[in-house]
Amino acid sequence: MIGERLELRPLCLSYCTQQYVDWMNDPEVYKFMAIREQYTIEKLRSYLQEVEKNEILFWAIVIKDSNKHIGNIKIDPINNIHGFAEYGIMMGEKSEWGKGYAYEASKLAINYCFSEGNLRKINLGVVEDNASAVNLYKKLEFLIEGVHKHHLLYDSQYLTLLRMALFNPQYTYP
């Protein structure tokens, strides 16, 4: 998928780099992520092999002009019976934070899933304290569907989880 400044390319073994490992081991990057374990190049390679094998909607976010990998976005798992899926994004390259790349990548993935994937709804979970992510999702027009108070443990503190959803405008509901 190609946007104004970005390309979303299938995430595969060619993205198994020390840079990616460094993202996964950077406390600022993984601060609100569920995975909190030390990564190695071998562990990343194994993970990317599983991604390739399972053929999920998982893309590397790449700046077109420089061919620079700056993060990943996925829509998985997908529930085809009920027409919904779970969204996740990681912006690993901190030098590119705050430039609107997460918004552009999200729009590309969401538009693809709503038009090509025939999804009627995309869900996500976000820690309420992750203000930049919550603001991104609100800008993308996700709605808060649920609030799980003191739900997740981060840095010895229980934080509130917001469950949010975006509905495909092609569907109508009574």
SSE map:
Elements: E1 6-10, H1 18-24, H2 27-30, H3 41-54, E2 57-63, E3 68-79, E4 84-91, H4 101-115, E5 121-127, H5 131-139, E6 143-154, E7 157-167
Parallel strand pairs: 4-5
Antiparallel strand pairs: 1-2, 2-3, 3-4, 5-7, 6-7
How would you characterize the overall build of this protein?
With 174 residues, the protein is of the alpha+beta class. 28% of the residues lie in helices and 36% in strands. The chain has a single domain (6-167), classed as 3-Layer(aba) Sandwich (Aminopeptidase), CATH 3.40.630. It has 5 helices and 7 strands; from the N terminus they run βαααβββαβαββ. The radius of gyration is 16 Å and the shape is globular. The model has no long low-confidence stretch (mean pLDDT 94).
CATH class reads: Alpha Beta
User: How would you write the strand order of the largest sheet?
Assistant: 1-2-3-4-5-7-6
How helical, in percent, are the residues?
25-40%
First-to-last CA distance: 33 Å
Shape: globular
Kindly give the count of domains: 1
Structural class call reads alpha+beta
Helical stretch count? Answer: 5
Quick recap of the structure?
By secondary structure, the protein is α+β, with helices and mostly antiparallel strands.
What are the key terms here?
alpha+beta; Aminopeptidase; 7-stranded mixed β-sheet; 28% helix
